[in-house]
Amino acid sequence: MKLAGKLTLIFTVIFSLLIFLFSSFYYLYTKNLLIDENKKELFRVSLGHALMMGRRMSAMMGVQRFSLYYISSPNGVIQDPFDLGFVYKEGILKNSNGSYLLVKRGEYIIGKDITSIILALNRLKINLTIFSIIGIIFSSFLGYFLSQRFLTPIRKIIQTAKEIDTKRLKKRIDLPKNKDELWELGDTLNNMLNRVERAYSIQEQFIADVSHELKTPLTNILGYVRLLQRWGKEDKKVLEESLDIIKETGEKMRELIDVLLEMARVQEEIPKEKINIKDFFGERKGYYEKLYPDFDFHVFIDSNTEIISSKGLLEIIFNILVENAVKNSISKKVIELGFSNGKLFVRDFGRGIPKEEIEKIFERFYKVDKSRSSSGYGLGLSLAKKLADILGLEIGVESKEGEGSTFYLKL
Ligand code: ADP
């Protein structure tokens, strides 16, 4: 049985039970009240008066029937206006003529006609039964209506839940107006969906980032392998240089994978360490010179300090910025990097970025000019921004079209 059916049944049963109890109570209460009143009357009326009344009436009419009270004693009937015969027992006596209430007073039994009261009580019983039947029918309709009403939000939740899949994770449950338990259920599910969507998009972005970040070093390695295949066997210098770069790039790839995996797992718990700026840029310069032999790298540091940050993440950010600088340089193949005015920076003298595009370049998949660089998916800077956010650093750019760009990280 469905929930709506169960709720209707429970509602109807409870409501019917209440109607039944109420009707029974009302009927018994009324019956007792009326019988008690008549009993009281039978106790109140004086026997002499009852007899006298009977006698006087009888004498007047010549019949005994006009007396209002039946009286008997153990010795026999004293007055019997209702043709009851000899009765020496308390209670309600019913015969074909009517109903009579008899009470014992001393050694007498005194009784009166209560036919009209019993008829009224019977009418009341019928009325209450009709009322109960109507009530039960009404309550089952009401129960059905209410259960439908209560269940509508739940049905909506079920419908929405059915519509949600990985392609439609944005969908949320419409919350009812009243802040009741159903609102709470919907809100809880929506919050859960927020978390699921976030986790899912982190995973999606992670895959995109990983493929982007791994593609470049892999291309690099493959390039050097081809170089080795052609000249490496004869030229010892090419052989050693290529092997060095392949090894270094491979190690960097492994580090990168470690960091990316770490990022995808717990973004908040990135381990930080003391980094000496001068050492850091010295290392970077050496690495980039090998990676981009056509370029000249200059390091400028206005004050040597130590910072607390994640070296691994900073390296990834600089790899992205330097790769972009390389990709976007035209004739002047010089790249400057370093630390000045509290900012870590990478400067190139290449194309520069149009003013109106500057705000957008940190968005995912945004590329200034789709035909500009064949490699890249417009993900590098968004990853750099994400990492800078994790490290609590502000990333920005100053650029002039045709003159070059300076990307910086503000400490
Ligand atoms: P991609 O991986 O495709 O290079 P990025 O997110 O790294 O994507 O860069 C976004 C856009 O910003 C690119 O289309 C690129 O043209 C532009 N850009 C990035 N760095 C520079 C730079 N140093 N000089 C000029 N344009 C740049």
Report Rg: 50 Å
Instruction: Give a quick account of the main beta sheet: strands, pairing sense, barrel closure.
Output: 5 strands, antiparallel
Hetero compounds: adenosine-5'-diphosphate
What is the H/E string?
HHEEEEEHHHEHEEHEEHEE
Distance between the termini: 65 Å
Spatial arrangement of strands, main beta sheet: 2-1-5-4-3
Shape: rod-shaped
Percentage of helical residues? Answer: 55-70%
Word description of this protein:
The protein is α+β, with helices and mostly antiparallel strands. It has helices spanning 3-44, 47-61, 115-163, 181-232, 236-265, 277-291, 311-328, 380-391, and strands at residues 69-73, 76-79, 91-94, 99-105, 108-113, 273-276, 296-301, 306-309, 334-340, 343-348, 394-400, 404-410. Strands 2-1-5-4-3 form a 5-stranded antiparallel beta sheet, covered by helices on one side. Strand 9 and strand 10 form a beta hairpin. Adenosine-5'-diphosphate binds next to helix 7 and helix 8.
